[in-house]
Amino acid sequence: MSMTPSLLPRDWMFQGLIGGISAAIGHGVGVVVAAACRRWVAPRLSFWPPTDVVRTRIHLGLRVFCVVASVLMLIPAVAWQRRLADIMGTTPPTLIGYSRTLLLSAVIALGIIAIARGLRDESRWVAGLLMRRWRVPRRIALVAGAVVVAVVTYLFVAGVGVRGGYAALNWAFSVQNDTTRDGAVQPTEPEKSGSPMSKASWDSLGFEGRNFVSGGVGAAELSRLTGRPAKEPIRVYAGLESAGDTASRMRVVVDELERTGAFDRKTLVVIPTTGTGWVNPTAAQTIELVSGGDSALVAAQYSYLPSWLSFVADRPAAAAAGRALLDAVHERWATKPANHRPKLYIYGESLGTQAGEGAFDSLADIRSTVDGVLWVGPPNSNPLWRSLTERRDPGTPEAEPTYADGLVVRFANDTAGIERNHGQWLSPRILYIQHRSDPVVWWSTDLLFTRPDWLAEPPAGDRHPSMRWFPIVTFWQVSADLGNAAGVPDGHGHNYGTQVLDGWVAVTHPAGWTDADTERIRHALVELRGHDGPEK
Asked: Which of 338, 356, 403, 408 has the smallest C-beta neighbourhood within 10 Å, fewest atoms?
């Protein structure tokens, strides 16, 4: 079952990983079921136990069947992966190359089973100690031994393992934070944080902050790309080392907004970041191209860890960081004359959407605070996203729901979904863009034992028509997909490419904007690809 297709193409290593995990779990289930049958079912069967000859034949037959079934399963598995590769424009696997997954699956399964048996032996040793020294009854001793080993293992993993690993990873990524990407140079424009005039020094911005402020294009280049007069865009950023604590960093942010004249621009965009402080360069360029540089982008780093580690280890930090950033900016923005201050928008991507949602208590809070929101690739754990999806209009799919007839909040899977006419859309507009094949959007621990609505719905878009839900197995399949979420071409998985442009135009609906303007900016984004550094 683990070889059946999921959201994204899988190479043999990812398939070997989830195949081994699934096999080990299946083995564990079989051990438990067999023990229960031996105790409560077998004694009632007149033909049990079978003779040695029958038992040998059963064991041999099962082993041959399992090996043959696994080998034969490679044929449809490769066909499914080739179909996914065709859908997403990636390199398809070969049957011979993919066959390596069987060996890797066996190694991983045996390793997991060996660890489980080691823990079982430890629990039996503890039980034996209780029986010998304190005369504890055997059944109670076995239960107590299992509990003791389980508790000690949990405390070790959760305490020494997780906390120690978190500290080690934090240190390792903090070292990377001190480096600078090739081509990223300190800006000289006063409109950028990190410039000689800035209150946030170049060295304090961190790896992603330096990428952000050194990227983008100037007013002259914007004019060339858009065919219209342009201003020098403003980019404000505070790194973890720009100040000693969150409150101090937020003061740096607000002071930078004042220094650069951000509150005099037409558009002010708060961008809660993902993990290490990364801001999608395509999104930043989109906002500046659409506004002709009459914009200010503001972001702040809150972690050394990349998004996937922050998501696993410290999700509350993202929400807290998003609230701190928006509160600080909004408080100063609200002091400006209403007829002169800029439009205030929120943009977030991936874990940045969780940080952005964390800044608000409700949908009403969003509408009373900002002028529009664009959230791209939201994690399934986002509270507001889940609430809106669960309360979607009856009859609409979970993969692309309609909420309250699309009057305020809308969801789209692709450019066509963004442009689809849903009738009146009140301002401020809120838009979620989420691919049907994005594992970040659909991964949840609920997949272990519950079939989600999006897998019960007819397949559409870039979801493989043969994907099915299997208890436990589908959870590990989608978990493996997370590792390749951004490794697929634009328009699939967690790679949203220039769909951000269509979403931004839909949310901000610039006056006099035409489809020709959108295509001109799209062409410019393609021309600028890589200008701000690699996509994440």
From this structure: 338
User: 284-311 pLDDT, tens per residue?
Assistant: 999 999 999 999 999 999 887 776 666 6
Let me know: does 3 contact 22? Beta carbons within 8 Å: no
> Alpha-carbon distance 350 to 375, whole Å?
8
What is the DSSP secondary structure assignment for residue 405, as one 8-state letter? G
- 0.85 exceeded by pTM: yes
Q: Please give the single-letter amino acid code of residue 261.
A: G
Gap between the Cα atoms of 100 and 41, Å rounded: 39
Phi, psi at 219, each rounded to 5°: -60, -40
Q: Name the one residue in this structure whose structure tokens are 């020709």.
A: 516
User: Under DSSP, is residue 411 helix (H, G, I), strand (E, B) or coil?
Assistant: strand
Sort residue 292 into left (φ over 0), alpha (ψ -120 to 50) or beta.
left
> Which stretches of 156-306 are DSSP H helices?
164-177, 206-214, 219-226, 246-260, 281-291
Give the span between the Cα atoms of 495 and 3, in whole angstroms. Answer: 24
DSSP string, 103-140: HHHHHHHHHHHHHHHHHHHHHHHHHHHHHHHH---HHH
Rounded to an integer, what distance in angstroms lies between the CA atom of residue 57 and that of residue 455?
A: 40
**Dihedral over alpha carbons 314, 194, 528, 182 (to 10 degrees):** -80
Share of the chain above pLDDT 70, in %: 96
List pLDDT tens digits, range 83-99: 999 999 999 999 999 99
Helix (H) / strand (E) element for 297: namely strand 295-300
In the sheet with 429-433, reading across from the earlier edge strand, the strands are 234-238, 295-300, 267-270, 343-349, 372-376, 429-433, 409-412
Whether the ω angle into residue 49 lies within 30 degrees of 0, i.e. cis, is yes
3-state secondary structure of 279: coil
Alpha carbons within 13 A on the beta-carbon side of 121: 6
Which amino acid, residue 69?
A
Burial tier of 187 (Cβ tally within 10 Å: 0-12, 13-18, 19+): buried
Phi–psi pair at 374, nearest 5 degrees: -125, 120
Q: Is 80 exceeded by the pLDDT of residue 160?
A: no
Q: What DSSP assignment string belongs to 518-534?
A: HHHHHHHHHHTTTTT--
Non-local CB neighbours of 70 within 8 Å, separated by 6+ positions? 102
- Written as one letter, the residue type at 87 is I
